[in-house]
Design brief:
Elements: H1 4-26, H2 31-49, H3 53-73, H4 76-90, H5 96-99, H6 101-120, H7 129-151
Helix pairs in contact: 1-2, 1-6, 2-3, 2-7, 3-6, 3-7, 4-6
Amino acid sequence: MKHKTDIAAAVCALGFVAVLAVSAYWDPGIRVLHAFEAVPYVVAGVLCLRRQKFGYALGAAAGAFWLWMAGFLTTFVANGFERLAMLIRTGTVDRLDVLIAVPAAAAAGGLVLFSMIGYARLPNKSSADAFLWAAALLVIPLFFVGIFAMLAPHYLAMFEGVF
């Protein structure tokens, strides 16, 4: 039986994919990159709906990794919230392509939260699940760094000093 948290995790994953799609629509140069970027979010959403442990780990890892990249390695999230404040204050915004960071951050944060709650609600947790979480925490960064290297090498600059 699906719980509301599983549905919420899937909705957040879908919301994040929608933001990727809108962003790719605005910038044709990142369409292929964003198509690949969407894969872990789609998989996580489907697996959360199926109440699969790896789906929760994948959702939490993917959402957290994006938030870390966009919030700490770049100023994308901060700039998005600055544009939101501008919109609230003036009724206009100069950069919709930056404002889109706000729904992206909300969707990614929701995915992290609801994935963790969904996992916590599972009755059949075991210590072996730590391997699933470790795998997700390893696979997600490798996947994103790999697709950046193949499709948009200039994004690798954000990782200077990290690796």
